[in-house]
Structure prediction request, 552 residues.
Amino acid sequence: MPKKSLWKRILHFLSDYKWYILIAVIFVSATLFGIFLLSGLDPYHRRSLLANMLLWIPLGAFNTMIFVIFLYWLHYGGGSFAKLTTKAVKSSEVQVKWEDVIGMDEAKQEAMEVVNLINDRTKIKKIGGKVLRGILMIGPPGCGKTYLAKAIATETGLPFLSISGSEFVEIFVGVGASRMRKLFKTARRLAEEHGGCIIFIDEIDAVARKRVFSVFGGTEETNSTQNQLLAEMDGLKSDDKYNIVVIGATNASEDSLDPALLRPGRFDRKIYIDKPSLKDREKIFAYYLSKVSHEPDIDVGRLARRAVYKSPAEIANIVREATMIALRNGKDSIGWKELSEAMERVDLGIKHRRNFTPQEKERIAYHEAGHLITMYLLHPTDDVFKASIISRKDALGVVYHQPREEFYTSDRERLLANIKVALSGYTAEKIRFGVTSDGVISDFNAAMKLAHTMVWRLGMNSLNMLGDLGAIPAEHLSEEIKTKLNNDVQNILTSCQQEVEELLNRERHILDRFAQELISKEELEYDEIERIFAEYGKYNPKTGSSFAPPAE
Ligand code: ZN
Prediction:
């Protein structure tokens, strides 16, 4: 029995340590075989070989050392890899005054609160309130996030450190984290000197995307940078002597950011900055116009109405563009004409004249006149600002229109109106020439997409089929249902087209008139368009008078 158990133990030992034993066997036999081979050599070769092998030991150690030092340097050190390009600016140099922040009253109010929280920090700490560390500014690009952050710095009198999230994204793992460490080090130094510091990280989504925990793949760089950011922010909490506030800005949605970032004590305060409203745009136009010389009679309200969905940055760009146009025209101040041209250039692109044959020109004129009339008389929300048969980008002509105010949703009426307007160019060609051209392709594309979306995705179909049918694989629907839905799409298009055809036939004299006006003038402005409609007793239903002539 003891013999058997001993044998078993040996077997166990062998199976437990089989890899070690294998390695030992290889090692020992390689050594023995090597010695055997060496002993067969003549003394000269044997000595040179042994010397070589001995010298490799310090050399190998030296190489390893260099490698380790390089890695360490990348991680913690300087060198050009980890260099930061932040600009530390003292608040006295940022100089964005509170009254210069215009057209974002709600965000401004939130920011004012933030300023108070930063300024009353000691007071808040005394009563045990929550100290502010991180603010997230969320909103579309060009809406003044940087501007607002700078205003906060000016208002609090603290130095302002600004960096873009993309500067943390590097090929080498660890460089981003190292830069983050440096950023906070700089901030702490500034805070010691000036009693606080504001760190502004623009495009924070570049380092704050949802972390992916994988062994492979290139997401680890973002992960390690983000971990560093979180660690630094948590460090601020425990090390309370620094009044450092981190402001992150993003135009990505909140959901795409890592939830760890939004936890209490990190970026737990949010400021939403949206595109400016009509009233806000008026203020922004007035502000930028006040900085250039302009004609006194510019209607700011009308400018703002026309600049629907424009961000403050785009409005600033329009005014700049207008001054350039004025300069080129040899004028020393800008007027409505320059502003209107600038806005068009921003929206539609630059005009380039093509040489059309008279027939082509007439076709384009009728096509655009069709759009113009349908838009003016049928569309519930959009105004025509201009009609033109001068080419811009790929378009041969254009009817420039915009909603009277910003809409974030469209109802059935508005969707149908968009389809009717899209089909009206085709209809006008059909009425005038009997045949139509390939100039309708992009109109048809738009109309088809809209009708398809209504039927398939918005429940606006004759089958009373609710739900977004595009969300499920097409094979889950029977052929019969698909055919019916596609018929619905066609029905919407045909009935819209018929309505437009009736309208344009009824108003044929207006259609002919606008086509002729376009052929002779090439471009018609808002005022001219309105005047011509008025000649026929038509008034813009959107201005409130709804077809009826003004009371006299
Ligand atoms: Zn068209």
Q: What stands out?
A: Residues 43-76 form the longest helix (34 residues). The chain has 20 helices and nine strands. The first strand starts at residue 87 and ends at 89.
